[in-house]
Amino acid sequence: MEVLKSLFTIFVIVTLGIGSRKTNVFSREHVKTLSAFVYYFGLPALFFTELSTLDLAALDMNIIFGSVLPIIIIIAALYILKAIGWLSKDNFILFSLSISFGGYAFFGIAFFETLYDGKWLSDAIVATSGLGIVGILLSLTLFEYANKKEQSWGFLLKTFRNPLIIAIFLGVLSAAIGFRIEVLNNALGLIGKSAGGIAIFALGIFLYDNFSVEAAKRAFAKSLFRTFSLPAVTWLLLILGMTSNPEMSRFLFLQSGIPAAISLVVFAERYEYKLAEVTGMVILTSILSFGGLIILSILSEFLF
Hints:
Elements: H1 2-22, H2 30-51, H3 62-83, H4 89-100, H5 104-114, H6 121-146, H7 155-159, H8 163-177, H9 182-193, H10 195-210, H11 213-218, H12 220-239, H13 246-255, H14 263-271, H15 275-303
Helix pairs in contact: 1-5, 1-10, 2-8, 2-9, 2-10, 3-4, 3-6, 3-12, 4-6, 4-12, 5-6, 5-10, 6-14, 12-13, 12-15, 13-15, 14-15
């Protein structure tokens, strides 16, 4: 099964990351350096080169709508539960955070790059472009709300200085006007090809330094919520006619199994909000995603 090959590839790289930390080849601080390279150079380069070659006129927007709508629907449902008093403010925020920002750029790109020889990589990059913008905005809004800064919206402007969002904008602009510099694209292409492997390697170091049974217990309910609710709502939208393309349906269904983003931990640390729970959620969804993606892959064969 192709998904097993892809996940085993990721597992090997994660294991190497864990091993490098256990043998002190890398220190705890090195994960920040590796992640900074991926965040500021690797992924922006990959996104720019891939998006700049898109045929925008032929782009199926269902890739973005089918990725983003399940998140919006679930958070809206959680807000209703909070409004009627069935969910506390903290539980609303934590359950919403588990959904709002997935590791589509870090984990997802590596997964789809190795799955079926990368046939869905372009779709994954287009989907992640929309998910990245929505995820960053939603998660920062939730952290602001947690700190009772509902009226302080200046942080939204800072969001658009995010290197990945800048790369998305420039890549789409380049595709729209047909602007190409072959030497530049070749250079950025080489940098971009390293992003997926380094991101997963850094995930291994992160897991080594942050995993604890206590953190996993505290995040168990929120992690299961993400693992089951996103695929369920995505499937519901697909059977209601989101797209009639079986290939896209399989891609969107598989994508719903990607774990929560490591960036949530950075935000939780910055906002001093429930760091242990958020860290546990990222770790546990990452671990659960290995089994979850296998199950989603099997189900996709029968459902679509």
